[in-house]
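During the no-cost extension, the postdoctoral fellow (Dr. R.K.) reprocessed legacy sequence entries with the updated structure-token encoder. One reprocessed record is reproduced below for audit purposes.
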Amino acid sequence: MPDVIPAEHLLASIEQELNRIQRSMRLTLQAKLQVLVGKSLGSLQHNRTLAASIQSILDQHGFRLRCHQCGHPAILRVSPRKGVPSGAFVFDHTIDGKRTFHGGGAVVPPVHLVAKPQRKNRRVG
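Re-encoded structure tokens follow.
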């Protein structure tokens, strides 16, 4: 009769392997994105496209950028800003239920990836 592996052990093993793969992906992607740190593409539209492309990649793999001001997981965006013709790179996130934008530099900020938080279920009433 074959050995039976308890479901808890099998699931724990799968979870451990997935965590290892996700960590490897996070570190690899983070290293690849480092070449963009400190760069600007020179126009608001080009920088918005760059930020949207970065965010799309991160979304596909379950990651967010860590906000350098508060440490929360955030979405990278580029916003128009007076005195910054190519737009300001900002961290868009929610803190205590309020949408918040931190940062505001003219170039891609340092990149530190974190896991994308679970969505909060909103009640439909």
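The CA atoms of residues 49 and 78 lie 9 Å apart. The first strand starts at residue 63 and ends at 66. The remaining legacy entries will be reprocessed before the final report is submitted.
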